[in-house]
Amino acid sequence: MNQQSSCRRTFGYRDFDSNVLASSYPRQCPVNGCLAELSSIPSGRNSFPYCADHGLRLHQNTFVYFNGPDKPQVDKARLRNFIYAPEFVARHVLDSQNKAESHRLGYEMSEDALSWNVFVAFLIANNLQSLVTWLTGQIVKDHVELYLWGSSVDIENMKSSPFAPMNEVRKTLEPDIKRFPTEPDIMLIIPGKLIVCIEAKFASGNPVAVSDLTIHGEKPKSTGDLVQRYLVSKGSWKNESKYIVREKITEPLHGQLFRNVVFAARMAELMGPQVEWHVVNLVSATQWQGKKTARGYSFDDPSERVRSYLAENYRNHFTSHYWETLYTQLVKGNPALFQLEEYFRNKSAHFRPAFNLVLSSKNQGNSE
Fold first, then answer.
1. Please, what is the average pLDDT of the chain?
2. 252-271 burial by CB neighbour count: b if 16+ within 10 A, else e?
3. Do 275 and 268 contact (CB within 8 A), yes or no?
């Protein structure tokens, strides 16, 4: 049984045969014209069909890049999901202890790979200022630094280092959290002026608090435990009431976004007295369309819920946006982002177009 592949291609929805997907998937590889005999390879407790010609492990209605079981082959497979600076990813991301669930970087539905490709494209194009302006509404002309999963992305010098204020806040609020400490997906930083924390979603919803008991070493799950953990006892955080009205925190609480708000405000304080903060929820209108809230996850616009507990002067410090609108307003027709435009146009989700880029007037602009 062949468990290795030399394929290095990145696949988009145009590469897949819709007839195969409709009639013979996963018995047949969905890549256009592929007649390869599939083998079966184990993953966890299950086995999946595998096309060695194209290095694809075929799951139910999705795929994972797979070049073989050995470490170099696993790394090669995950890197196929990255169209920008893969050598930087190989050096600083694949084996980083700061990157949660790095084994998923080679999945078709990886929101981390999506985030990297979009934000690093803007970094390379020296165009992060336009992103900050669009996300926050603030005109930005200063140099912007990019951090992904808590670490800096310095492509030019091939260097990466953790964001010190984030680690300091973790020491204060999460000294005993071992499983997935709080880690903003993306941070855009103007030293001495601004920090923008972005919680990015692709097909998954925003986690909401549930009544489950807190497990030692993990972040709390219930509303009460989240408030107790991140706001601690009333008065312990001197500036809490400046940003958050504790009494207005009600269910359903978007736990991940709540943690981002607390971390953003506290990191800004550590960065300097004049530093402002902003939190963004970046989601897909296409992937969220028609999805209903289920236990533990919400696909509704969180803006009203989050702003309800922010102090009046800080309600506009949270915004929600669509990937599709980012494309329409910042990427489409921008010659410096030609490769990113093609990525958006061909990106797949469950083998189909990931984004409906012909947005209705309802979805133009923010998702607020």
1. 94
2. bbbbbbbbbbbbbbbbbbeb
3. yes
